[in-house]
Amino acid sequence: MNIYAWFVSTFIPIALQPKFATPPEGSTCCVSIQGPGGLDQFKIEQLDDTRVTIGCNLKHLGLIPPYASIDKNKTLDEQFDSTLVLVETDFFSINYADVCIRWGLYESALRFVGFPIVPGFDFSGKVMWAGKDSNFATGDVVFGFSLFGSYSRRVLVPSRQIRVAPLQTHIQGSPAFDQALLAGVPAAAATALHAVALARAWPEPLRTHNKAVLIHSAAGGVGSQLVTMCKLVGLGPIVGVVGSSHKVKYCKQLGADYVIDKSKQDLWKEAKKISPEGFAAIFDANGISTLKDSYEHTARCGTLVIYGFHSNLPKASTLLSPMSWVKMIADVFKMPAFDPMELTLESRTVAGFNLSFFEKEHEMCEKYLNQITTWLGEGKITPSPVTTFSIDEVGQAHELIQSGMSRGKLVVSACMKDKNA
Predict the structure, then answer these.
(1) Which end of the chain is flanked by fewer CB atoms within 10 Å, N or C?
(2) Alpha-carbon distance 83 to 361, whole Å?
(3) Which uninterrupted H or E stretch holds 377?
(4) CA pair distance 104, 90, nearest whole angstrom
(5) C-alpha to C-alpha distances, 330 to 321, 323, 326, 333, nearest whole angstrom
(6) Are 115 and 81 within 8 A, CB to CB?
(7) Which residues contact 91 (CB under 8 A, 6 or more apart)?
(8) Helix, strand, coil % (nearest 5) of the chain?
(9) pLDDT digit of tens for each residue in the chain (421 aa)?
(10) 351 touches 304 (CB < 8 A)
C-alpha cells in the first residue's frame, strides 16, 4: 500500500483522492488512519452519541479498538467497568511513533489494533463520566495517556492512566497549567523516566563514580525531558546532542552542561573531550546512524539505553518510496551486534524498550505517572514548549515531526473551531 500510494502520488497524483476533509465547526470527531501509506490515509470521522475511541488495553472488558459503542437507552454506569473514565479531550499530542503507525511499521499497533486505527498516546481534557471506583469526578481537569485512541474528542481510558492536572505549587497563587502544555507531557516524560530507570539512576541514585550522560536528540520531546530528569537525579556532566544550531540555546536553557551541534561539530570527538572515559549512560533513539558509536562510548558499568530508530526511517517524506524500503531493509543488516562476552568483560549494559507494549505493567505505569505529576507540581520538570495545530491540520503536524526540524512537542486541539471567529 505504501509503494502504491507513492507511485500514484508521484506519477498520477490526481488519482489519489484524500479522505481528509474539514469537519463542521463544533463537531465531535476523531482522526483515524485507514491503512498504511501517506497523509491521504487520514480520515476525520464524526463521533455521534453512540461511540467513543479506546486504547488496545480494554479487550479484557469486551471492548475492541478503535471504538466502543454506547447504548443511549442505558446509563454509562450500566455499560462500562467502574474503573473507567470518559474524557472530553481538549488537546492530544503528536509523537514520531504516530508516523510509524501511519506507515504500517509500528509493531504494537499492528499486533494489538490493526487498520483502521485511531492513533495517539497522550492527551489533556475534562472528565465527562467517571466510574464509581475510578476516584475521579465529572468536571475534573485531567491529563494522561491511552494505548492508541487519543486522536479524538472523546476517549475512554482506565483511571490508572490519568491524573488530575497538578497546580504549579512552586509559583505564588499556584496557577493551573495550560492544557496544551500538559497534553505533550505523559508519553515523552514516561519514556524519559523509564530510560533513566534503566540507567539505574532512579528511583535510587546512580552508584558509579562516573555520572556523565550523553543524550541524543536532546531538543526533542523525550530528549528535553531526559536533560531535565538527568539533572534532577544528580547526573552530570550532561551532554546534549542536536542536529541544528537553532536548538543549542534551548538545550542549554534546559540544563545541559554541554551541547554538541553535530551539524557543525564532530560528535564523538567532542564527546571524548568532555568525558574521556566514556559515559555512564547514553540515551539513543537514532538507530543505525549512532548506535555502534554510542555503544563504544559507553563507560565500564555504564548503560546504553535504546528507545527508537529514527535514522532508519526517511525524513521529510510523507510516503515510503521503493528506495526507502530498500534502505530500511539494508539498514536492518547493518545494525550492530552486541557480544555477550564483551558486555561481561566491559561490564556494560544495553537496554531497549517500547512503552506501547507495557499494557499489563499497571504498577510501573502508575508509579511513573505519579512521579511525573509530583515533579510537575513542584516545578522540578516542566512541559516542553508546544506548537499547536487544529484537528484538520494533523497532516501538517506529521510533516513537521518527520522533517526533524520540530522542537519540543506538537499538540493538536481536539475541538473543531471556526478559524474565522
Answers:
(1) C
(2) 16
(3) helix 362-378
(4) 27
(5) 14, 10, 6, 5
(6) no
(7) 123, 124, 125, 179, 180, 182, 183, 388, 411, 412, 413, 414
(8) 35, 25, 40
(9) 555 554 555 545 554 444 555 666 777 999 999 999 888 899 999 998 899 999 999 999 999 999 999 999 999 999 999 999 999 999 999 999 999 999 999 999 999 999 999 999 999 999 999 999 999 999 999 999 999 999 999 999 999 999 999 988 888 887 889 999 999 999 999 999 999 999 999 999 999 999 999 999 999 899 999 999 999 999 999 999 999 999 999 999 999 999 999 999 999 999 999 999 999 999 999 988 899 999 999 999 999 999 988 777 776 556 677 777 777 777 777 888 899 999 999 999 999 999 999 999 999 999 999 999 999 999 999 999 999 999 999 999 999 998 877 888 999 999 866 555 4
(10) yes
DSSP 383: P
Q: Which residues of 53-89 are buried (b: 16+ CB within 10 A; e: fewer)?
A: bbbbbbeeeebebbbbebeeeeebeeebbebbbbbbb
Which of 222, 213, 148 has its CA nearest to residue 190? 222
399 Cβ neighbours under 8 A, 6+ residues apart: 39, 316, 318
* Residue of 368, 357, 349 whose CA lies nearest to 193: 368
Give the three cell numbers for residue 246. 537553532
Omega of the bond prior to 203 within 30 degrees of 0, cis?
yes
- CA 240 → CA 99, 216, 271, 314, distances in Å? 24, 6, 10, 23
Instruction: Return d(Cα 140, Cα 300) in angstroms, integer.
Output: 48
User: Rounded to whole angstroms, what are the CA distances from 209 to 228, 235, 297, 302, 342?
Assistant: 21, 10, 16, 10, 21
Rounded to whole angstroms, the Cα distance separating 390 from 92 reads 10
Cβ–Cβ < 8 Å for 113, 144: no
Instruction: Round to whole Å and give the CA distance between 118 and 46.
Output: 12
**Strand 213-215 and strand 279-284: pairing?**
parallel
Residue 260 CA to residue 233 CA, distance in Å, equals: 22
What is the rounded distance in angstroms from the CA atom of residue 391 to the CA atom of residue 73? Answer: 31
Please name the helix (run of DSSP H) or strand (run of DSSP E) that holds residue 267, with its range, or none: helix 267-274
Amino acid in position 316: A
